[in-house]
Amino acid sequence: MPTSVPLRRLLVALLLSCTVLVSATACGSGGDSGASSSASPTGTSPTGTSSAEAQKFAKTRFVTNAGLAAGATYQWIVKPYRAGRFKKGADGRTFALVKAGLAGGFAYNRLKAASDNAKGDPLLSKAVAPLTAGIASQGLATKLRKGDAGEGDIGAFENVINNVKDAGKSAGAEVKDKVPSTAQLGG
């Protein structure tokens, strides 16, 4: 009977390995597919979306990425800071700082993605262009992880988020907070 436990583990490991292999193969970017080998009459390869569709998707991606950044910032940085969870001696301070650090990194990543998405739409591009320097200059995640973030740092980051939301609203892409799960923060 003692050999059945390792056999069970072996079967579970084999099953998980096969699942990962199949999903990686199915989702991989197959370089040569039948569709890419056929040539169009003009000799140029067709694009998947038209200019209008690309702009529509750019706005959608911008709204999603900016909403996730705003939600993460509010849920795991602003709210705990205002509740005093980052102060020395506060109950759960270390865990709150770790989550805030992850949220800061996540928000920075999503804001960069949102500013890249905005480049696909002329109106959004003009509205977000002045904000890219503010997005790039934020080192809040590092300060949060170390416990060095103060009121000015939190306020500056919150202002960047609000400015991105306002820029989206002025371009016709209203951003609403979307709180990501804790698993999404970890990457």
Summary of the model, kept short:
This protein is 70% helix and 0% strand. The protein has 187 residues and is an all-alpha fold.
Largest beta sheet, briefly? none
Count of runs of 4 or more consecutive helical residues? 9
Q: Return the structural class.
A: mainly alpha
Separation, N- and C-terminal Cα atoms: 40 Å
Estimate the global geometry from the Cα principal axes: globular
The total of beta strands comes to 0
Low-confidence stretches: 20-48
Signal peptide: 1-24
Keywords: Signal
Region (Disordered): 28-51
Biased composition (Low complexity): 34-51
Descriptive notes:
The radius of gyration is 22 Å and the shape is globular. The chain is an all-alpha fold. The chain has a domain of 120 residues. Helix content is 70%, strand content 0%. It is built from nine helices and no strands. Keywords: Signal.
SSE layout:
Elements: H1 4-27, H2 34-37, H3 51-82, H4 93-118, H5 122-128, H6 132-136, H7 140-146, H8 151-170, H9 182-186
Helix pairs in contact: 3-4, 3-8, 4-7
What attributes characterize this protein structure?
187 residues, mainly alpha, globular, signal
